[in-house]
Amino acid sequence: MQRSSWLTIAAVFCILTGTPVLLHADAPQPDDRVALKGMKQAKAIFDVRLADLDKLLFNLALIKETHEGISNQKVKPQLMVTLRGPAVRLFTRDQAPEELKELLNDLKQKGIRLEICSVATRVFKVDNRQLLPDVTLVGNVLTSQIAMQNKGYALITLN
C-alpha cells in the first residue's frame, strides 16, 4: 500500500475513534493574526435559534471558544448571544440540563451578554418567571440585533 493510503486510513481511524492526531512539533500553530491585525476589539452578536439541545450546546461552546481565541490573541472580544425561536423552551429551570446551565454561567462570567426574546417566550408559551438567571429577558431580540449592528457588531447566525 502507498504511503498516502496509510495516512488516509490513519486519519480516518483517528476521526472515528476520537484519537487525537499528533502534530509535528515544527508544524505552525493556527492563529487568526491576519484577520485580527490592527484590531483592539471584536464585536459580534450571535443569533441563536437552535431547538436541538446537542446542536445548541455545541454552538454555545463554540461561542465560548471564539471568545477565548480572540482574547488569547490580544483583542478584546465584545460578544452577545440572542436567543429566539423554539430554542427559548430550553432556557427554563425545569428544562435546562446541568450542562447548559454551566455553559451559560461560563459565558456570562466571560462578560458575554445572553438575551432571550419575550416575543419568542410568548409564542412558545414559556413562563418568563421560570427563565434561567443567566439570561436577560428583552422585548424583542430582533431590536437588539438591529441596534447592535448599528453600533458596529457583526451578526452571526447559528442554526
Q: What report would you give on this structure?
A:
The structure is a single chain. The protein is α/β, with parallel strands linked by helices and 159 residues long. The chain has one domain (30-158): 3-Layer(aba) Sandwich (Hypothetical Protein Ychn, Chain: A), CATH 3.40.1260. The chain has six helices and five strands. It has helices at residues 3-17, 33-36, 53-72, 98-109, 118-123, 141-150; strands at residues 41-48, 76-83, 113-117, 136-138, 154-158. A five-stranded parallel β-sheet has the order 4-3-2-1-5, with helices on both faces. α3 (53-72) links the parallel β1 (41-48) and β2 (76-83). α3 packs parallel to α4. The radius of gyration is 19 Å and the shape is globular. The model is unreliable at 3-7 (pLDDT under 50).
Across the major sheet, the strand order is: 4-3-2-1-5
* Secondary structural class: alpha/beta
CATH class wording: Alpha Beta
- Succession of helices and strands: HHEHEHEHEHE
Could you estimate the helical fraction of the residues in percent? 40-55%
Which band does the percent of strand residues land in? 15-25%
For CATH, the homologous superfamily is named as: DsrEFH-like
